[in-house]
Amino acid sequence: MKLDRSSMLLYAVTDRTWLKGRSLADAVEEALRAGVTFLQLREKDLDYASFLELAREIKGITDKYGIPYVINDKVEVAMAVGADGVHVGQDDMAPEDVRKIIGPDKILGVSAQTVGQALLAEKKGADYIGVGSIFPTSTKPDAETVSFDTLKAICEAVSIPVVAIGGINKDNAMRLSGSGIDGIAVVSAIFAREDIATAVRELREAASRVVGHEL
After folding, report:
1. What backbone torsions phi and psi does residue 72 show, to the nearest 5 degrees?
2. pLDDT, tens digit, for every residue of 3-30?
3. pTM reported for the whole predicted model
4. Which residues lie across from 71 on neighbouring strands?
5. Based on the number of CB atoms within 10 Å of its own CB, is 162 exposed (0-12), middle (13-18) or buried (19 or more)?
6. Is 99 one of the catalytic residues?
7. Catalytic residue among 7, 111, 133, 179
8. Which residues contact residue 174 at a Cβ distance below 8 angstroms, ignoring those fewer than 6 apart?
9. How far apart are CA 184 and CA 140, in angstroms?
10. Given phi > 0 = left and psi -120 to 50 = alpha, else beta, which region is 160?
């Protein structure tokens, strides 16, 4: 599956720590049913076997809804379960090395905080850029924030889709209008909510206004 720019509109990144005992599969299914357009499985503390089992379970759900599905950092897990691609940060495997492993047809996302990082990621094979943290976030409390001007400059510099991430919710998303982003990526704004479906619908409406898409 190659990347369709419109699929970046509402990009969900998983985090089981918000779920209060609810299964991730159940939360993901509710989110996708309500309108999430892209899913990244992010697990930093699971052993390989557990991560593999979870990744395979989530793939069954993303396949059901036809939603692009990438794995954060763990290239071997992504390949083992047949995920649509991989997302890596600046401290993970180099994009060109990931591309060699996953081949030309898988999706490769790369995190960037500067224009230089974004341009290099595009040159090295990235299909989209994730820019953040845009606002302070409890998910990554030590993350440095990226200014609106830098976000806009990144969007103008690269030819591939850009999604903003970090502390974004339905109330502050409109502050990103005019930046040129193709979508918003959220973690707790979906997975920390009791009513995930309502959260997703509100976020998708906000994202559509920011990006300028018709609902």
Report:
1. -75, 120
2. 899 999 999 999 999 999 999 999 999 9
3. 0.96
4. 41, 86
5. buried
6. no
7. 111
8. 206, 209, 210
9. 16
10. beta
Catalytic residue among 42, 124, 152, 201: 42
Rounded to whole angstroms, how far apart are CA atoms 166 and 185?
Answer: 7
- Annotated active-site residue 193? The verdict is no
Domains of the chain: which residue ranges?
Answer: 5-211
Query: 13: exposed, middle or buried (C-beta count within 10 Å: 0-12, 13-18, 19+)?
Result: buried
**5-211 has which fold?**
TIM Barrel (3.20.20)
Half-sphere exposure of 38 (CA within 13 A, CB side): 32
- Catalytic annotation, pick one of 140, 152, 177, 208: 140
Q: In one letter, which amino acid is 76?
A: E
Q: What is the pLDDT of residue 215?
A: 47
Q: Which residue has the tokens 């989530």?
A: 58
Specify whether 111 is catalytic. Answer: yes
Strands 10-13 and 128-131: unpaired
